[in-house]
Design the sequence.
């Protein structure tokens, strides 16, 4: 469906199947850059919420090991692409944007968690 959009190996868009593979086989960390209210309304299980405005600050939501793959997600993908650029500047080696964002995740019938 969504082939990698760039060949630079840094911030490739991935489809839901590839995202699941990265999460399950490569221990990718899911970084959800939605606002807290959006995140509470539904997110990928195990995702860490780091709103776009806070990405450049880094923080506890980001893994200390910058070699771990990151899957960045938002509602549709636009904010995730901006966040991916910031994460690369922070030194994260493998940053992937979930093509279609949470909308694509839901459309694929994948599980969504809601915060209490």
Sequence:
């Amino acid at each position: 469906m969504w082939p990698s959009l760039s060949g630079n190996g840094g911030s490739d868009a991935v489809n839901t199947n590839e995202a699941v593979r990265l999460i399950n086989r490569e221990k990718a960390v899911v970084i959800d850059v939605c606002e807290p209210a959006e995140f509470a309304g539904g997110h990928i299980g195990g995702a860490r919420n780091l709103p776009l405005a806070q990405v450049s600050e880094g923080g506890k939501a980001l893994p200390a090991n910058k070699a771990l793959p990151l899957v960045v997600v938002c509602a549709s993908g636009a904010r995730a692409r901006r966040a991916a650029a910031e994460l690369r500047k922070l030194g994260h080696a493998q940053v992937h944007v979930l093509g279609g964002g949470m909308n694509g995740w839901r459309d694929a019938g994948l599980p969504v968690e809601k915060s209490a």
Residues 6 and 12 are 6 Å apart (CA to CA).
